[in-house]
Structure formats: C-alpha cells, structure tokens
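TA notes. Do not distribute before section.
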Amino acid sequence: MTTPSARAFGTNLVAMPTPMNSDFSLDDAGITSLVKHLVDTGCDGIVVAGTTGESPTLSEDELVRLIELAVAAAAGRAKIVAGVGTNDTVSSVRRARLAAHAGADGLLVVTPYYSRPTQTGVVSHCSAIADSTDLPVMLYDVPHRTGLAMTPATLIELAGHPRILAVKDATGDIPRAMAIMATSTLEFYCGSDELNLPFLAAGAIGIVSVVGAVIAADEARLIAAVRTGDLVSARSVNAAIIETTAALNGAAPAPVTTKLALVELGVITSATVRPPLEQATGAEAALVLAALENRVPASA
C-alpha cells in the first residue's frame, strides 16, 4: 500500500502489551525482545502505550522509556505509534510532545473518556494534540471503553486536519465505517480482531490487532489476501485463527491474555500486569493455552 496512512503507520499493526517485571517496573529486556519478535513475525507497525499496553498505568517517564526502547529495537523495520490520548487535553498534548521527542513515528489519540465532552469538544481536543507536533495522528474510536463515540460528522471534520490521517475503529459498525470512507479521506484500521476480515473487505487500509502479538504472520497473510482480491484464501486464514482470536480477546482483558501467551511462547519472561488488572485465573489461562496448542499456522 502506498497511501499516506500506510506510509505513516503501516498496515499490519500490533497493539503491544507492555512487559513488566514482578515488581511492576518496566521490563526493558522484555520490551526489546517483544518488539523484535513482532517485527520478525510480520508486523510493520507497533502501537505502544495503548489499551493493551496498560496506558492508564504508565507515567510520562515510562511512556518515554517505552517509546525509546521500541524505536531502538524496531530499528526502522516497523513504525512505532504511541498512545498519548487521555481525558485531559493539556496532559495529552504534553505526552504527544514527549512521544515526538522520544522518536515515535505517529500518535494514537483516543476519545476523551469519563469527561465525555460534546462533539465540538472532541474536535478541539484531537485538533490540539494534532497541532502540538509534526507527527501523523490516528484517532481511536472505542465507545464501549470511553462512553463516547465520535459521530461521522466529527470524524469527517477531523479528517480535514493535515496530520489526522486515520482512525482505529473499534465500534464494530461496518456500514457506518463504509459510509465515512465513501465521503472523506480518513482511512480506517480495524480495531476489533473478530471483524478484521469484513473490515478489510469493506475498505479498511489495515488493522490494529491484539491477537497480532501472537499471530502477526497470519494477520499479514490475511491482509495480503484481501488486498489481492483472494477472498477464498482470506477466509481460510481467518478460519484458522478464530480460536486464538477468541481466546486472546475474550478469556480475560487483553494485557492479561497476551502476556500469558507471550510467556508461553518464550518471548517474554513475566506475565505481570498492573492493578487493577489481575493475573489470569486457572480457567482463563487454560483457554489461552488451549488455543495456542490447537493453533495451526494459516496459509494463503
């Protein structure tokens, strides 16, 4: 793909969990190992400090450290997109500037949660962040977490900003996405793993995936198959990853399941998550481990 968004962010992005030591500190070696694993297995973009990265628990100093380690480990082979959105515009602007200084390639900006401003407030918030650096911006529309959806009119208005190029759509509303794609320059990334295939077929430029932490190569095959119009192969890939997708997105919160899977695969050494998240129960862990054991690498 040669669209502005593909050049800015990539197409096969992984929402990366943040490796932590048992004392809840950042695991520098684990971060480096994980980034290298993701790039080696097929992703061309990595979102750090997003929801799966436990962004609400990361300090600004930790955000900077995480970005610096990811940029160094990726070594130019994948774009590093930093989650900087909060429900405080001033804090978000500051985080955006810190991310730019740390070497991030792009910014992910979530709808202001809890505060729930008007749509005019959402436009002002996102525009202020986009104005604060020269980095390209991907919006993040995830109303089931934030309690606030971006309306189509808001997304179309924000698409007029020269640095707001894309949206990670976790609404699950494909007809709405198609309508916006038909009337604006904003490019869509699917933010709901179970809908990656239909979103791509409907015109999404790429995905931002939780399950990609484990199956980035399969996700790359899925994207390539849809891109070339080979829907038979795309459906085959999709069928092969359904169990893994369901387990990593449903057994427990994504940071919990992805870290557990990555420990099982030998990529990181600790599945520690920060409170209020908790380690997987025996039943939750069993679902994840069964999915890994049953997984057959897809081919397209």
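Switch to the second chain here.
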Amino acid sequence: MENIIQVDTLRKEFKSYSSRSGLKGAFRDLFTRNYKVIPAVKDISFTIKKGEMVGYIGENGAGKSTSIKMLTGILTPTSGSVVVNGMNPHKEREKFVRSIGVVFGQRSQLWWDIAVQESFRLLKKVYHVPDHVYESHMNHVIESLDIGPLLDKPVRKLSLGQRMRCELAAALLHNPSLLFLDEPTIGLDVLVKLKIRNFLKEINQKYQTTVLLTTHDLTDIEALCERVIMLDEGQIIYDGRLSKLKSSWGEGKQIEFQFADPKIEKLNLAVLTNDLQTEWTSGNKKNVWVANVVNDEELISEVIARVVAAHKITDIKIHEITTEEIIRNIYEEGVIQ
C-alpha cells in the first residue's frame, strides 16, 4: 500500500527574542537583539499509508500543531523533508491544497456573515469542483452530518456543534484523499461527537480517506484510530498500534473501594496489602480509595478479601485502566520507545 505521508528527519526551529531592560537597553535592541533558537520539532520521521486513520497525540507544546502546519504547507521546515500526496506541501502549495482537507477546531474556513450554503458555493469555485460531482457528493455529506436545516443560516448564528459539522462538510467538499483534523470535537456534546465519528468512519470505508487526527479527547482516538503517534518535547516517543500500547502499559486494573469510615488513611491500606504489589491512590469522591493492581484474578480477590475483612465497605467497583491513564503514566515516567 502506498505512503500518502512521508516524513524524514523533520525539524522546525524558532528564534525567541528577549528585550533588554531600560531605555539604554531598548536603544541597543534597535541595532542588535538577543535571541535563542528553540527547536519545536526535533528530527521526527514517520510514514502514513493510504486509508489509515492515525491519532496524533501529545501534551500542549509537544510539537503537534507545528508539525501539522508543516505537513499542510503553512510552515516551512528548518530541515528534513516532507512529501504528502506525492508533493512538497510548501513548494507546491496551490496544487497541494486541492488534494487535502483541513479542520482546525479553533479556526473557521466558513464566511461568518453569509449563509452556510453560500460558503459551500464559494469553496466549490475555489476547488474547481464540477456541478454534477458537487451535487452527488455534497448531498451525501449534508445528509450524513444532518446539516440540511442549517444551510440557509449565517455561520455566526450557529452553535459550536452545528458550526463544526459544517466545517467538516466544507473540508470534504472536494472529496480530498487526506484529511487533517485538529481538535475537531473540542467543546462538543456527546451526540454531536458520535455523529462526527460515525461519519468519519463512513468516509474512510467508502473513499479510503486517510485521516490524521490531533485531539486531547482520547475517546475520539479509541473510537477511530488503530494507530497512534505520540509526541513529547518535539520527538516521537511512540508510534504503533493503540492495542499494543494498551497491552504494554495497561496490564492492570483499578479496584475502587468506598469506605464507611471517613478516617481511613492511605498508610493503613498500604500496610494491609504491602506484600501484594498494590499501589493506593485517592479517588475522586469522599471516602474513596483506589487500589492499582496487575490483572491477576487471584491477586484481585486477595486484595478485596483483605480490605473487606478489615474495614466496612459501602461500595466496590473494578475498572480497566483507561487509555488516558496509560498515556499520563508514560508522560510522567518519561519513557521513550
């Protein structure tokens, strides 16, 4: 299967200028300025094949947005190479943008004061989409995203969820082979998120549309992506299947105990299970403590038996360790693959 994205030792550096204090310092800054070079993306390499849906994740400042901007041709790399859809994004910009779709959760590509359908018609002209192609394709998109009643409304009168569905439709107007999504479900309610996820799955299956998804909502990643690329401080620290990430780092369960006695302390619980390799953390409710244990039936049973024998319990719940918890642990431990 062909690579639709090929990134090789990609690097982006920015100059950070500092001002000297006082009038004399301001005068000196007119002629020479102090600066330091800050690398935002540090020699990353990866490939994405046609039809893949890949989660691109990391903490704020990890380099996600900077690398996405280089992949879409907005920024020019300091060094390294980027080939997307067989083109250099920043050198073949006009031709390149016709082959991709982009949705930035914080920015709009629709015109604020005109009706949504007028924005669609303008974009149709920009992308040179033939009338018959536009009609057949957009009818399907409009129906799937349930935005028919919104077409005659100005964008400024739409709710956030309505606008994001229209933004997604606009990005897919020319049926691109590659779709970049940067926080597409930010601030949306559960039903709108579900509608968007189902639609993305549908176009991926129908058109083999490649999707690169950047989000802090890991439920989006779990629902859509089999593969994740994880960044930290401008470097890739994990690139592989989400299932492997879970199996490598999520081999454990959380036993949540709610105690009748409000004075239960962590030390007492730790002493109770000190030979069972159990880590205790406070829960998010009053009188709740959580035992983190490996996924072993006998061990789980022993922990529960000891705690129940020693203290009065009002509730017990057993949880799988979530993807969010796994990723948080990786960042806290600073493990680089």
